[in-house]
Amino acid sequence: MIEQHEDLLEQLEALRSRALTELAAIHSSNELDEWDTRYLGRNRGELKNISAVMPKLTKDERKIVGQKINDVKKDLEHQLAEKRETLKQNELMQALEQERIDVTLPGRATPVGHMHPLSRVMLEATQIFARMGFNIVQGLEVETDYHNFQALNIPADHPARDMQDTFWVSPGQILLRTHTSPMQVRVMKQTQPPVRVVVPGKVYRNEAVDATHEAMFHQIEGLLIDEYCTMADLKGSLERFAQELFGEKRRARFRGSYFPFTEPSAEMDIDCPMCDGKGCRVCKYSGWVEILGSGMVHPKLLREVGYDPTKYRGFAFGVGVERLAMLKYDIGEIRLFSGNDLRFLRQF
Ligand code: 2NL
Predict the structure, then answer these.
(1) Which residues have C-beta within 8 Å of that of residue 304, sequence separation ≥ 6?
(2) Can you give the CATH number for the domain in which 127 is found?
(3) Helix (H/G/I), strand (E/B), else coil: 244
(4) What are the pLDDT digits (tens) for 7-38?
(5) Among the atoms of ligand 1, which is closest to the Cα of residue 320?
(6) Which residues line ligand 1 (CB under 6 A)?
């Protein structure tokens, strides 16, 4: 019996030195885990296998061998923990080394977009009026028949309604606005003069689409109401607007026209910004291009919104934004604005 337990002690000692030699050669966490199961594993670990003979020993032998097992186990566990820590440190150092960031590398370029040409013209045009003291107002695109037509002196049987083919939401009552004027009607009904507003926004007309017409387009309308206001104010303000947008040397001329909501009415031409009035493809060799419609606000409208037409008067105008942009940038096709073709958009 003495021999058996001394043999066991030798085996344990041999186990310890074999385990530690192997441990010293380990360089990865994976190998370390394998080593852990092989020697210290609860199930088939070598230390566990040796412990299996314990029940066959005498009480005294069990005490000696038990202590030795514990001693070897503690030792191996301690060395394992130390090795784990060393490996962890090594792996960290390796990661820091490999993942080192080169702060001198140039950054990756981020693609930058820009404003749509229409938005740009719309912003520029409204800013010009803002500098003259107009307030910028936006509003509903779905409107009532009253605000879009009736209040603007366009009754149900008026020929202007045929001119403006309307998209109806509920026929005779709710529609997609055909101009931004309904918003000016709302402003006038809510406030007392003086009024100075510009209303930019989308408008809708059920038209045959071609190179210069779309069913949805953009308009800027303006309205000024005050006690003293004449056609001279209209002409001066609108000519100034054209000069700010198309250049200082632009000249304006006014031709008599008709709109149901203004009297008198006038269309404004400017000398062609492409050829300075010499005559070219853009102005069809006339030297002039039409850019807006305007007029003195009809007294019927003033009365309709509750203003005294003997005390107040005003001027109003409407500009097509697509038309302005096509003139400013020499674009011959209106559908490019809604086409979202980057080859077009990148030119601005
Ligand atoms: C055009 C013509 C115009 C107006 C719009 C207007 C609005 C109110 C009262 C009076 Cl609330 N007038 N707007 C006046 C004259 C012409 O637009 O051909 N635009 C592209």
Answers:
(1) 151, 153, 185
(2) 3.30.930.10
(3) helix
(4) 888 989 999 999 999 999 998 888 999 999 99
(5) 20
(6) 181, 184-185, 221, 223, 259, 261-262, 293-295, 297, 301, 316-320
Give yes or no for residue 326 having a pLDDT over 70.
yes
> Does residue 8 lie within any of the structural domains?
yes
Please state the pTM of the whole predicted model. Answer: 0.72
Distance 84 CA to ligand 1 centre (A): 83
Strands (E), the chain: 135-136, 142-144, 168-170, 174-176, 195-204, 216-226, 252-259, 262-271, 288-297, 313-320
Does residue 2 register a pLDDT over 60? no
Same domain, 10 and 138: no
283: in domain: yes
Atom of ligand 1 nearest to the CA of 151: 11
- Answer yes or no: do 279 and 226 share one domain: yes
Q: Are residues 276 and 315 in the same domain?
A: yes
Choose the final residue of a domain: 98, 131, 146. Answer: 98
CB 151 within 8 A of CB 185: yes
Number of domains comprising the chain: 2
Which residue, by CA, sits nearest to atom 8 of ligand 1? 181
| Residue 248 assigned as binding residue | no
Residue 296 CA, ligand 1 centroid: distance in Å = 9
Q: How confident is the model at residue 160 (pLDDT cuts 50, 70, 90)?
A: low
Same domain (yes/no): 140, 217 = yes
Ligand 1 nearest atom to the CA of residue 323, by list position: 20
Q: Residue with structure tokens 């080169």?
A: 102
**Domain extent at residue 32:** 2-98
